[in-house]
Amino acid sequence: xxxxxxxxxxxxxxxxxxxxxxxxxxxxxxxxxxxxxxxxxxxxxxxxxxxxxxxxxxxxxxxxxxxxxxxxxxxxxxxxxxxxxxxxxxxxxxxxxxxxxxxxxxxxxxxxxxxxxxxxxxxxxxxxxxxxxxxxxxxxxxxxxxxxxxxxxxxxxxxxxxxxxxxxxxxxxxxxxxxxxxxxxxxxxxxxxxxxxxxxxxxxxxxxxxxxxxxxxxxxxxxxxxxxxxxxxxxxxxxxxxxxxxxxxxxxxxxxxxxxxxxxxxxxxxxxxxxxxxxxxxxxxxxxxxxxxxxxxxxxxxxxxxxxxxxxxxxxxxxxxxxxxxxxxxxxxxxxxxxxxxxxxxxxxxxxxxxxxxxx
Amino acid sequence: xxxxxxxxxxxxxxxxxxxxxxxxxxxxxxxxxxxxxxxxxxxxxxxxxxxxxxxxxxxxxxxxxxxxxxxxxxxxxxxxxxxxxxxxxxxxxxxxxxxxxxxxxxxxxxxxxxxxxxxxxxxxxxxxxxxxxxxxxxxxxxxxxxxxxxxxxxxxxxxxxxxxxxxxxxxxxxxxxxxxxxxxxxxxxxxxxxxxxxxxxxxxxxxxxxxxxxxxxxxxxxxxxxxxxxxxxxxxxxxxxxxxxxxxxxxxxxxxxxxxxxxxxxxxxxxxxxxxxxxxxxxxxxxx
Lengths: 360, 288
Known about the structure:
The complex is a heterodimer of chains A (360) and B (288). Chain A is α+β, with helices and mostly antiparallel strands and 360 residues long. Chain A has nine helices and 24 strands. Chain A has two domains: 4-235, P-loop containing nucleotide triphosphate hydrolases (Rossmann fold, 3-Layer(aba) Sandwich), CATH 3.40.50; 243-359, CATH 2.40.50.140. In chain A, 42% of the residues are buried. The model of chain A has no long low-confidence stretch (mean pLDDT 85). Chain B has a domain at 61-242 and 269-287: MetI-like fold. Chain B has twelve helices and two strands, in the order H-E-E-H-H-H-H-H-H-H-H-H-H-H.
């Protein structure tokens, strides 16, 4: 296990990158602590798989350094880095038995057969496939195959980190839950450094201690699931995490009150504090649907539709020409002429898409 | 569940049935007809029963030609399959090299068979052929007209030149369909080049290799045009394959009965061997 420092890494798939847009990874500077469970979350094409492949050594970064426990490994091959990686589609050697699949990485490294046997049996027990050892790997189900991919990583006791590239994409929904909890268990028991790439927020939030949200080739926020939810540092994070995502509305500010640009006349929405602006930029107010209160007071809205999700309802309504979403808890009623107020505790302010702190 | 019978389906397959009947079944039946009768022309036929078949199966001429066919096919498979795999493995996977290689590989396949024969017939000639003349100038005693071994070498090299591309293209198609993740996983697992071939590439090429072996076996076992053009079956009978012998017998000597019997035996052997190949290879694949 190792601490992984990603040191100002930039990567482009083009031979002569010039502009920022030429880079698949604009600049990433981050430390993955030893034994941490991280999720890299972001939409397709945001650079998360690129970052993962740079860590595993399948790609060489255009700029920057990669350190494992302070040792520069940027120029080392994948094999020398001692990394395990589980891919989106299960990779198994289907002419081999389950046992031989797990023994493969050890035998390739010239480990003595007695040690191979001991390690393989341990690993088979860890991933719950002990009864399948003698079976050909090709006849197994997708989740078993994915476990074998994982097992080929776990079998090497000295792996520096285990990387997952959207490993549950092809797994049935009910098995996803099982596999994810098994992964968490392995993490707790053995303290592997795990980096888990996904575009599924539920997967990221349930798996990881810390979630790294990526957007457009850079990291926009690193935090615990709660931080990402309560204080998204970029409007993208607010929009991407949560279902439905955060409402983002253009505002004008005076002191500790805000007025929506889209509505004439003052509404004087109270803010939790006085914002500390850094520069003059486009100012927006972000509020999650969970913090919008629907009732008979406040700003009038026109109801567009109501989605009943069982536990709660989602109200889609027009507020001065902008569509907003609000969550109405179980048992809540929507009045005939609904009005909304914003709970100050759930308000975040953004300047040019980045979050601004508010003083008391 | 009750099964629905839809007799209209039969009308849909009727055109194919008619087509197959006229292109395959009717000619085959004509051959069967000849094989059990004797004729002296004038549309007079006499019942001969299994006489022609017995004659064929007891003739040395038939078994010698059969032996030549088997040796030829085995040599062809032993050269073309490994060579085809080797070339496919070394072809570029991306970039401008791909279309260049594919076109180069496809070229021999586009040349008509008798033209291939003519090319090599001229190429190998001792007096004017580039190959024949050069070989002799360098001190090799090469002459495919006189020497049975040289004739065999010429015919085999010609077939390798003509048909290895087919194996290459099939294998290449199998190789490019392997997802990158397999190679990446192999790197992570520290697999050697040989292990990658043995445990990833070869198993994934299994299906196309089966097709390649079948096609090359059947085609080489039925070879006719090229050796006919190059050697005409000689020197002596050294390159007289079954097909060449068959034509000699049917068209040259007008022995329609024995020729028909031979055709049927030949056909059954090709069918049988192809079935054996197919069964062995699919079972091998399934079991693994």
